[in-house]
Amino acid sequence: MEKGNEQEKKHALSMSARSHISIFGVTEVESFDEQTVILSTDCGEMTLEGEGLHIGTLDIARGVVEVDGRVNGLYYSDSVPVRRGFRAKLFG
């Protein structure tokens, strides 16, 4: 693996007592509310589910997001939405 690619894949997370989670390697916050936070990470789409969730730190330039609240679930989705071109929308 090239050093440049290795630098891009720095995804990690740390959770304390299901009430605080620090996530590294975040490229985008897709959506969030008090029950769900959806993030794009270096390792795929990540969904956090819980109660009273709120984003305490958001630094996309550094790829860091911290979420507080009760975390009930965390999962990744490997499916990447296929972006279809104009012709595919017309004829597909």
Compact description:
The chain has 92 residues and is mainly beta.
Unreliable stretches (pLDDT < 50, length at least 5) are 1-7
DSSP summary: helix tally: 2
Strand adjacency order, main sheet: 1-2-6-5-4-3
Output mean pLDDT. 84
Strands, total number: 6
What does the main sheet amount to?
6 strands, antiparallel
CATH topology, anyone? Immunoglobulin-like
Shape: globular
Give a description of the structure.
The chain is mainly β. The chain has one domain (3-80): Immunoglobulin-like. Helix content is 13%, strand content 58%. The chain has helices spanning 3-8, 86-91, and strands spanning 12-16, 20-24, 26-32, 36-41, 44-59, 64-77. The radius of gyration is 15 Å and the shape is globular.
Question: How would you summarize the topology of this molecule?
Answer:
Blueprint: H1 3-8, E1 12-16, E2 20-24, E3 26-32, E4 36-41, E5 44-59, E6 64-77, H2 86-91
Antiparallel strand pairs: 1-2, 2-6, 3-4, 4-5, 5-6
